[in-house]
Amino acid sequence: MSDATETTDEIETDEVEEVEAPAPDPGVEITVNGQSLHATPGRMLIDACEDAGVYIPRFCYHPRMTPVGMCRMCLVEVDTGRGPALQPSCMLTVSPGMTVETESDATKKAQDGVLELLLINHPLDCPVCDKGGECPLQDQTMSYGPGESRFVEEKRHFEKPIPISENVYLDRERCILCDRCTRFAKEVAGDPLIHFIERGNNTEVNTFPDDPFASHFSGNTVQICPVGALTAKPYRFKARPWDLIEIESTYPNAMGDRVTVQASRNEILRYQGVDSDAVNWGWLADRDRFSFEATMANTRLGDPLVRGNALGSPDPDGSELVSTTWSAALGQAAEALAAARAAGGPTSIGVIGGARLTNESQYAWAKLAKGIIGTDNVDAQLGDGIPADVVAAMPRATIDQACAPGGTVVLISGDPKEELGTLYLRLRHACENDDVTLIELTPNETGLSRHATQSMRVLPGELGVVADAIVSGQPGADIGLSTNGDLATAHAAVTAAENLTVIVGRTSLAEHAALTVEAINAFARIDGVRFLSALRRGNVHGAIDLGLAPGLLPGRTALASARNWFGDAWQTLPLDTGLDTAGMLQAAATGRIDVLVLLGSDPLRDFADPELARAALAGAGTVIAVDCFINDSIAVGADIVLPAAAFGETAGSHTNLESRITPIRPLVTPPGTARADWMIAAELAFRMGEDLGFESVEAITDEIASVSALHGAATAQAIDQAHDGIIADGAAIAQAPQFVWTDLGAPESAIPVDSYSYRLVIDRTMYDSGTQTAACQSLAPLAADGAVRLNPGDAGRLGVVDGVTVRISSKRASVEGPVIVDERISRGVAAIAHNHPGLDARSLVDREQTITDVRVETL
Amino acid sequence: MVEKIVTRRFDNLNAHEIAEYEASGGYQALRAMLTRTPAEIHDEVRNASLLGRGGAGFPAGVKWGFCPPGVWPRYLVVNGDESEPGTYKDRQLLERDPHQIIEGCLIACYAVGLTQCFLYIRGEMAHAQERVAQALNEAYAAGYVGKNILGTDFSVDIVLHWGAGAYIVGEETALIESLEGNRGMPRLKPPFFPAAVGLYGQPTIVNNVETLANLPWIIERGADDFTAMGAENSKGTRVFAVSGHVNNPGVFEVEFGVTTFRDIIEGSDYAGGVRNGKKLKAFIPGGASAIWFFEEHLDLPLEKVAVDQAGSMLGSGAIVVMDEDTDMVRACHNIVRFFARESCGKCTPCREGTTWLERILSRIIAGHGRPSDLSLLTEVCENISPGMAWPPRMTTICPLGPSAVSPIASVIDRYRNEFDSYITLSDRSVIEVSAAGMNA
Amino acid sequence: MARLNETSMRIANDILGRYPVRKSALIPLLHLAQEQDGWVSEEAMAHIAELIGITPAEVLGTCSFYEMFKRSPVGEYRINICHGISCHLVGAEDLIEHAEHTLGVRAGSITDDGKISFEGVECIAACTEAPCLQVNYRYRNNVTTDDFDELVEGIRNGSVAVPPHGTLAATRQLIPEDKAAGNAMVDDPTPPAWWPAPQPEEGSANG
Ligand SMILES: Cc1cc2nc3c(=O)[nH]c(=O)nc-3n(C[C@H](O)[C@H](O)[C@H](O)COP(=O)(O)O)c2cc1C
Ligand code: SF4
Ligand code: FES
């Protein structure tokens, strides 16, 4: 793809946006309480009234789900020419000339009646209910309800709260049967594991016996329950709503889910999803919703640590990590950096990590590393992503563009349901409700397979060929599990698509990133195609855009092409393109890198080659870690640990996978003396006798906007005020990086095909042993023990059933673990999820090879 | 003697067998129909002004016309869920003359372009299921149903479907939900009537068993013969089941508008008068949902408009007669209990309100009534059905909830003394104690 | 109790084939499970969920809505005494009271020998034959207390010819393969073969 085409694309995009800009629409004229107003055609009456400032009470209606008209609370008197009649405003779209009375006697009487009826069986336990103080039922009762109950019969009784999942409790006595949680489970999450049971006055919500509501999204039901029937274990009885302070922020996952952070007495107690049209629609994945427990964990680092002895005294050769002062730790770190630079030059320093950081902290660290120290050995990805120059060069789609009605989406990534929860919800909705054609190119079934128009199984190693065949319409020699028929249909779909988005991430850690790049190259040949990155690590897109990647400077600017221009803004620049994480680890292991900075990273756990990571930690002269927790790599190899402030404690901004920049705002103070990552960078610069040149987050944000064309519109003020954030527009970059991946040649020929040979897929699940999840007491137990998942047919051939231990061996190593038989796994594939207790498949992988073939044998 | 339409074979106890059915002119309408165009058949039915016999009384030919043009496939769902207390006609039609229903289905399918038919029969009617299954098996074998019926292009499968016990499933949108394998909870309409968006989201005609039973006769004899019978606004005949305190309870097919309630309740050809020489106290004119009638309504003709104007409805064709000894509070409770037990649970007023009404009434009967209970009953009724009149001004999706109000609305003023005497005799202390307990 | 056995599965597949959308077979399949075991077990519900491709919770949601499905074992013979309005007027309550006496159990429970369970039910559509009842959904009309005693006697000594609880219709519908018109699939928009070709104005409505 040439620059020229890219520019044209962007212009087209602009035009589309202009067309979409709301033309002054006369709308539908309706009369509400005597006032005439214009409503958007097709709008529900209840929403149209709310737009106009007239709030109609409701319990069952939720704007993100199909209206059911169950609770009857929203009844209002409506006259459409046939005389006034009570109608549920949640099920009525506005029509011209409609006259609505939301305050008339008949309306009031109907609403009062419904309220009284809802209350007859509702326990009066508001004082001990989690929802007390933020309960619509309580509020309605206060403002409209009858004073005293005339219901003298005994109330409906149920056994007190029952756990319906690991983290959600259901109190059926409080339930008003609004169908919100059950609709959410079915319509939004696609996990209809809770349901109305029984009939009439005996109706209750429940699960099937011993089949819990094990949904990655169960926590959303707690948020949307209009009463206190559903409560979240991590929040139960923790606080009263009126004690909470809150602030709107951006959850630092790759989706950049919009959230409200709530705290009481300097303790974060809850995250609630914010209904952002452009992003998460109010939803959150449980892993994120309940992750505040990690922030509040007592394992958080509060003080700097250095190597020391068993008595707690600093000692560079000691085996322990002992507390020290900031000035001692920073002094030691700055000294190590300065010494390394002096001795081995800037390239003897490397920085691994940074995806956890805010945009501002990322910029500060990029400036420290590249603009002051002068090393380009900086990488926020740990070899499990896509080369940063490729990501930087892809023409990007927004989530809304990908999900727009009638569009076509090609999915090449890990299972979004496991890795990018709210993106999964958006895509699922798009397929189910907006006729989006989804073509899935994944090794195994994903959570979206049922919704895919075409779900094609692509074995590791064949992604490039299959993508090429789909784009060209010419099937190559080896198209894996796909049939020619599939390819022809897919070819027709992608070439005819008016709005084509390729969602791209890594389908397997055991497959070389080159294959993903081949697929990107193939699809990039289609005119007008846009990509949506499915990289999953925190603020990794910010990291790439702000230069925490080899060869890139802030603003998706290639180091090579921006030397003069950036040289003015920064005092120095690296001479050559630096090493990626693998390269740095290799260099550290062989003594070429002396100081390794772990910027919120844990190569021992996260890098595909744990042996190399171990050798690197041992080989580096000094390992400086900036983190919130002690992770494995720190425990084993860090010499200096600088405690960082976490989400909820820092200010700044975040870049999500569609390059949307939204604000991150602090609500509580960090533990101990932990501080923001950018401050740590600034202190280190200062102690190296340099100056990063900023003293506040806003100053950094504005500096970014001034040096990076990509961020030109994203000033501190603009970010703070923009409703749905600011998209970092790739069109603003004068010189977009080019990407080419040198052809790696055909994948290594497979080992002889017999019933023991499988192709290895290492994928990810929502709950694993990652540092954050492990620090959440409610989530840690959800990480299942490691296992190898096999197709039932393969398991049958091997003669194994669930739980049987097998040996999995590659040319490199051999591991053992239990089998899980799973029909979602393709035949011939052995799938092992990364980072689960008891089974680490990484040592099987040879990173130089495109794929990893293994033998699975019974013991 | 009036000419019978749908019950014309009831004298023949073997009419359910295909040979008998054919011998008595069966499947001739089908043959005749196949020589005409679907539009002609539709017109014939439209001209016959055949009112739906399921309760709402909507003209079948008009309803058929609501299918959006060009949208396929379209389905026919036969409503054989008959569960309204007092109603006993569809089961008889299904058991005694099942081929007539099958032929009716074929006519509807042909005329409207319905390509598959589901015959939804109430689950508790095992015998009707057997008879219909047998008839369908015979009809398939004879080539009347299935692929290329009688060698023509006309193909349609009729699938016998079992209900499983839920009155609400008789409501047409709940029927569709149920047929889709869901809980039988009604869908809100408008905006979507089943004829536009029904089964699986496709245009769907829902017709009652008796409605369809009329079709073979209409096609055989023509719309004019049909409209020659009946009243200005209700053409043809109607099957009424008269039950309760009468000498000769039974199912009678009568011409609309000609016969009066007095005729059918007291006439010797019909129910033969209140039994044991007692006097009439009240009667329900159209199933448990209907507002009750009394003495003064006896001379109303059995005809839709007259009954509607008198504030009730002919509904499902069920006339239930109560003699002078009837305990109105208990009778009222009996019907309210029915609706409380049968509420689907979707709408708050129906789910909570009907149960509350039932509990107040059973408390009154149990001797724990309180003077304030009568106004409480009225107010709860008002919450479910503002104005307590028929047709109801609803706070609910379907009329089941408001139906529970009908018996109370019918008797609470007229027979207030009966309620009062329960309450006067009641032992209120019991409830006072439990009420105190509730408030604590 | 169990998943559907081989015989049931053959019928189940036949039933599943009759609907354009599999979930429509849910109620008939629950009847089938009840016919097999006399009641609907959790295993059967889970099995049906698999057959249809929905969750067991959805099966339970539907199953528990309907009166006829029993989710715990019931008597081999279930007597449903109608207490609808027509039967009420002519003595249903007395009949129920009599039944409680005769059987020695309260309405809604099972006799000690597990043979009979009985309950008062809503109108069973035999109003002109009131008071009436059903034994496993087979009618008994104009039932006197003597009739009732005779019935119980007959059940106990095996002379009542009624299939055990769960058996719905002794005759099943069979759609011969060569005669079947085939399901009208939701995504097949072709007009029926007998439908006249569209009028020109209908055909040109492309806008
Ligand atoms: C609560 C309720 C129960 C109903 N029960 C039945 C029924 O058992 N049988 C029936 O045919 N119609 C019943 N109906 C009427 C149906 O909704 C529908 O109007 C009818 O089946 C249409 O057929 P028709 O036009 O041929 O009358 C019921 C309606 C309501 C609201
Ligand atoms: S009125 Fe009652 S039966 Fe009808 S839909 Fe509402 S809750 Fe269900
Ligand atoms: S909000 Fe409209 S009925 Fe519940």
Describe the protein.
The complex is a heterotrimer of chains A (859), B (440) and C (207). With 859 residues, chain A is of the alpha/beta class. Chain A is built from 28 helices and 36 strands. In chain A, the strands form nine sheets. A seven-stranded mixed sheet of chain A has the order 15-14-27-26-25-16-17, with helices on both faces. A six-stranded mixed barrel of chain A has the order 31-35-32-34-33-36. Chain A has a five-stranded mixed sheet with strand order 2-1-5-3-4, sandwiched between helices. In chain A, a hairpin with a 4-residue loop joins strand 6 (162-163) and strand 7 (168-170). In chain A, helix 10 runs parallel beside helix 24, helix 15 packs parallel to helix 17 (513-524) and helix 20 (581-589) crosses helix 22. The model of chain A is unreliable at 1-22 and 741-751 (pLDDT under 50). Chain B has helices at residues 18-23, 28-33, 38-47, 60-64, 90-96, 98-112, 126-141, 172-179, 209-213, 215-221, 223-227, 261-266, 304-309, 328-342, 348-368, 373-384, 400-411, 416-424, 428-439; strands at residues 75-80, 116-121, 157-162, 204-208, 237-244, 250-255, 280-284, 318-323. In chain B, 64% of the residues are buried. A four-stranded mixed sheet of chain C has the order 2-1-3-4, covered by helices on one side. Among the domains of chain C are: 6-63, Orthogonal Bundle (Arc Repressor Mutant, subunit A); 77-157, Glutaredoxin (3-Layer(aba) Sandwich). With 207 residues, chain C is α+β, with helices and mostly antiparallel strands. In chain C, helix 2 packs antiparallel against helix 3. The termini of chain C are far apart. Chain C is 37% helix and 9% strand. The chains are: A alpha/beta (859), B alpha/beta (440), C alpha+beta (207). Chains in contact: A-B, A-C, B-C. The complex binds flavin mononucleotide (FMN), iron/sulfur cluster and FE2/S2 (inorganic) cluster. Flavin mononucleotide is lined by residues 52-56, 58, 60, 79, 81-84, 168, 170-172, 206-208, 211, 398-400 of chain B. The site of FE2/S2 (inorganic) cluster has 12 residues of chain A, from loops.
